[in-house]
Amino acid sequence: MVSGSNWSGSVTPPADDGGDLAASGQRKSVDAGAKGPLINPGSAIRRRHGVSRREVMRMGLLGLGGLAVGGLGGFALGRSTAPMVEAPHPIVAPVSTTPLAAPSFPITVAPDARTFVDAAGQPYFYLADTPWNAISRMTRESFTTLATARRDSGFTGLQISVLDFDTRAENAYGHAPFGARGALDDPVLAEAGGEDYWTHVAWCIDTCAEMGLLACLIPSWYGGWGDSWRGYLTEENAAAYGAFLAERFGDRTNVWWLLGGDNEPIAENNAASGVPGNLDRGPVIAETIAMGRALRAGASTTQLMSYHTARRMTVEEYFGGEEWYDISAAYSAEDSAPFVAAEYARATVRPVVLWESYYEDRDTEPFLDRREVRAQAYQALMAGAAGIVYGHSLVFSVADGWIEALASESSSDMGVLSAIIAEYASEPLTPVSEAAGTLGLFPDGYGTPGTTSFVGAVTLPGGRGALAYFTEPRSTVAIDTTALDPSAGFSISWINPESGEEFFVADGRAGDDVTIGWPSTWSDALLVLRA
After folding, report:
1. In the chain, what is the straight-line distance between the N-terminal and C-terminal CA atoms, in Å?
2. What distance in Å separates the CA atoms of residue 207 and residue 209, rounded to the nearest whole number?
3. Is 339 in contact with 382 (CB distance < 8 Å)?
4. What totals of helices (H) and strands (E) does the chain contain, helices first?
5. How far apart are CA 465 and CA 479, in angstroms?
6. Quick one: how far is CA 430 from the chain centroid?
7. What is the pLDDT of residues 305-317, one digit of tens each?
8. Predicted pLDDT at 428
9. pLDDT band at 7 (very low <50, low <70, confident <90, very high)
10. Over pLDDT 90: what percentage of the chain?
11. pTM
12. Tens of pLDDT along 376-411?
C-alpha cells in the first residue's frame, strides 16, 4: 500500500506455481549475475485497504440520482440552476492512503520551469476536481461537504467557475452577479457588511484555503459553442471585469485563474455557434488578453494563469507570448498522453496541466469504464504533466446525486494516485519519449502509441529508478535495468492503481534480461523500479 514517503506491506514472492504464465520457469531473471526463475506475483495478491464495490453497494452509494442532460463541449450538463438547499449527507471514507500534503500558499513555478512549488519550497502537484458550478449552485454547507471530501480524498485543488454556466442564474441565496444579464462591468455590490454574490465567492475561496485546496477560478466560462458568457465579452468590459476580480480577490494566495472555458478563442468551427445572433460572434483573443492583463496587474500576490481551450486544441499561438500565460494547457481525448507530450515538448518550457479529459459516468459516447478513466490520469503523469484534473458528470454540473458521486470508484482511484505522487513528486520525473529514441528499459518494446498496448514511463533523476504505467496486461514484462544504470541493483514492485496495494517482486535485481510476471487479476498496473 502506498503510504506517504515510505512503502509498506511488501511481501516476499512465493515460488512460481505456474499461474497463467505460459513461459513460467523458462525465462530467467538476473540478480548480480546469478540466474533465478521468472518471478510470478499473480498468486500472492492481497487487498488490505479501500472500499470494495460490494461495500459501496451495501451502503447505497451507487444509487445515483437523476441527471439533467444538456450539451456543452461533448459533456453531459445539468442545466438546472436550482440551488442545493438541503443539508448534505456524509459520504463514505476515502481509500486509506497517505495522500499529498496540504501546501503553503502561494503556489509558484519551480526553478526547473516544469513543476510547481509552494511557499515553503516544497513540491506541489495540482490534482483537482471540476465542480464547475459549485459557487453558484451550492449552499455553504454543501460547499463544505464538497471541499472536505476532496481534501480527504487526496485532491489538492478545485476548478470552479466564478459565474454559473447559465448567464441567467443567481446563486443559492438569490444573489445576482451583475445588474443586467451579461453586464460584466456592472457587478452588484451590497452595502458595507452585507451579503452579495461576491461575498459568497470570497467565502468559497477562503474555505478552500482553510482546507489546503487551491481554487482555480474560471472568470467567465465561454461555453463549448459559445453558449455561456463568450458573446457578452467586449475588450472594455473584459478588462473592467478582470480589474474588479483582481481588486476583490487579488490578495488570495490560494487562487489561480483559468481563462476561457472549453472554447476556441477564434470564431471557427463550433466556437461561436451558440452565441445569440444579436451578440458578437467574432474572436475573443483581444478580450481574453485584456482580462488576463487586468488580473495580473491588479493582483498583490502570485496567482498563476492559463487558458482552458477546446478539446484537442492548443492556444500557444494566441497567448503563448503573454506574461500572464504561466501554464501550458492540455485538454485531451481518451488518450491523454499525446496532448500532454505535445505541450511538454514546446521550446518555451512551462509546467503542463491536463485541465480536462473525459469524465466518469458519461451518458454520451465515448463511455469510459473505471480503468479508462484512471488511465487518462496515469498517461498524463507519464507524459510529464505537473497537474491532472479528474471529473464526474454529476459533480461538475451539481446535478442530483453529486454527493454520492463524491465517493465513486474513480474518485477513490484518484486518492491512490495522490498517494503515489506524494511518494515521487519530490523528485522531477522525466518522461521517456518514443519520438526521441525510446530508452531501452523494456526490450520487448513500449507498445504502439495511441493504443492500450502503449506503456508510458518516467525516470527518476540520476538513473535512480523509473515508473511505468501499463494500461493493459502483459503475460510477462522483460526489463533491462542497465538502461537506467549499468551496474546498480533495483527493487521491483507492482502497484495496483485500483486499490493502492503494492506487491513487492524482488530486490537487488540488475541486468539486461530481468523478467517478471504480471499480477494475473489486475487490469492495469504501475511498475516501480528503485535503486
Report:
1. 19
2. 5
3. no
4. 12, 25
5. 12
6. 18
7. 999 998 888 899 9
8. 87
9. very low
10. 68
11. 0.83
12. 999 999 999 999 999 999 999 999 999 999 999 999
Q: Which grid coordinates are listed for 16?
A: 512460481
Q: How far is CA 510 from the centre of its chain?
A: 34
Q: Which residue has better confidence, 353 or 49?
A: 353
Residue 45 to residue 19: CA distance in whole angstroms: 12
Q: What b-and-e string marks burial along 43-66, b requiring 16 or more CB atoms within 10 Å of the CB?
A: bbbeeeebbeeeebeeeebeebee
Measured in whole angstroms, the distance separating CA 387 from the mean position of its chain's CA atoms is: 6
As a three-state string, the secondary structure of 371-434 is HHHHHHHHHHHHCCCCEEEECEHHHHHCCCCHHHHCCCHHHHHHHHHHHHHHHHCCCCCEECCH
CA dist 324 → 119, 188, 297, 303, 304 (Å):
20, 27, 9, 9, 7
**Amino acid of residue 419:** A
Given a cut of 60, is residue 42 above it in pLDDT? Answer: no
Q: What band does 97 get if pLDDT is binned at 50, 70 and 90?
A: low
Can you tell me the distance from the alpha carbon of 446 to that of 456, in angstroms, rounded to the nearest whole number? Answer: 7
The answer, yes or no, to whether residue 22 has pLDDT greater than 60, is: no
- Cα angle 406, 409, 410; round to 5: 85
C-alpha cell at 231: 458573446
Q: At what angle do helices 370-382 and 337-344 cross, to 10 degrees?
A: 20
Cα–Cα distance list, 280 to 72, 218, 224 (Å): 20, 21, 16
